[in-house]
């Protein structure tokens, strides 16, 4: 059991290193591969972007209303906006975006890779002189990372705008105080932690499910094991970001 657990994690780290090298290699973006990559980026991002943006907008409005009303009742209105932004942009939206991309895209990609492996198509690509990781996995991994980062970034901007409108309405009087508070929250250290957390979230949801499909497809519990490893990594990243921001 311990050997199988260690082997699964070693394969994830190895696959991540291979994907990083391939992603930085100019040969991975030849004329034929660029078109396939662009198509994969569009298919993994465009269909889920409107739905997630609407979801983030609804969460932003509801959470803003709850926190502002609660803060006013306790005389803590000066801290309400900062609390909403910290909860939404720093914690909730990046994690929600990662889970959304995993459920809508990358877990399905892992299942597709498992089917390709079981049907022998990956071995057929290898016999033709093509790298299965570069041909099948790399576009899916890059698309998963791109989708996660795009959803998190766009939804954060939407949330910041809606938080302002939810508190001040269509009025520019609160803009100086809002931008001042924004600058206090997003210090260089906090911004760096947020960027790294979003990047590591996107790598986790992109690589771990597909790694399970690529390597562990022979076992019936491989998909479940991949999901458990993915959630464990997301939890560790979230804990590390909380320590970086508040300790």
Output the number of helix runs: 9
State which percent range the strand residues make up.
under 5%
* SSE string, helices as H and strands as E: HHHHHHHHH
DSSP strand tally: 0
Task: Please bin the fraction of helical residues.
Answer: over 70%
Question: Could you name the key traits of this structure?
Answer:
247 residues, mainly alpha
Structure overview:
The structure is a single chain. With 247 residues, the chain is mainly alpha-helical. Helix content is 85%, strand content 0%. It has nine helices and no strands. It has helices at residues 2-24, 31-45, 49-73, 80-119, 121-127, 132-168, 175-185, 188-215, 222-246. Helix 3 packs antiparallel against helix 4 and helix 3 (49-73) packs parallel to helix 6 (132-168). The longest helix has 40 residues, at 80-119. It starts with a helix and ends with a helix.
Topology of helices and strands:
Blueprint: H1 2-24, H2 31-45, H3 49-73, H4 80-119, H5 121-127, H6 132-168, H7 175-185, H8 188-215, H9 222-246
Give a quick rundown of the structure:
With 247 residues, this protein is mainly alpha-helical. The chain contains nine helices and no strands. The two termini are 36 Å apart.
